[in-house]
Amino acid sequence: MISAARLLPVAAKRPGILITHWVPEEVIDRLLAGCDLIVNASRDTWERDRVLDLARRCEGMIAFMPDRIDEVFLSRCPRLSVIAFAVAHVENCDFDACTRHGVWVTCAAGARNGAAMEAAETVLDVLAGRRPRGAANEPAHASRSLE
Q1: Are 96 and 136 in contact (CB under 8 A)?
Q2: Is domain 16-142 in CATH 3.40.50.720, yes or no?
Q3: How far is CA 85 from CA 10, 62, 141, in A?
Q4: What is residue 136's DSSP assignment?
Q5: How far is CA 36 from CA 58, 79, 84, 93, 109, in A?
Q6: What does the alpha-carbon distance between residue 3 and residue 143 come to, in Å, rounded to a whole number?
Q7: How many CA atoms lie less than 13 Å away from 67 in the CB half-sphere?
């Protein structure tokens, strides 16, 4: 398992992805093929300041219910281009702020393990240029609620 304390190098050549909560090994293995990871390997929720500090090093993020994405968060994380929530309904995200910052936001519904893998695939697609960037697209706004 990747250490929760592992930090990305200052001049990372591979995209960095922050995973804010525990995910299955297969999700980590899928992402490690082409990305550097910062992973919360515990089942505890990290404090917002820690998530902010770690996210500023990353281009992508897999987020969960407790994570709050707002103007303050995004202004401190200028490298972020994609946030994939592994939850059925996103409540703690300012979609308008994401649009202003050019951050793609999506929501992966389903069972936790399946949602985490779907979120991982979305992050990889956006970082590889297979999906347009920016939350002003239909999938980002449609993902506000998938119920």
Answers
A1: no
A2: yes
A3: 26, 6, 13
A4: T
A5: 9, 14, 16, 24, 25
A6: 31
A7: 26
List phi, psi (to 5°) of 112.
-50, -50
DSSP 77: -
Helix ranges, 45-92 (H):
48-55, 71-75
Write the pLDDT tens digit of every residue in 85-137.
988 778 899 999 998 999 988 887 665 668 898 889 888 988 888 776 554 43
Structure tokens of 99?
């649009």
> Can you tell me which residue has the tokens 């297979």?
130
Residue ranges of the domains in the chain? 16-142
Place of tokens 């300012």: 94
Torsion on CA atoms 121, 125, 127, 128, rounded to nearest 10: 130
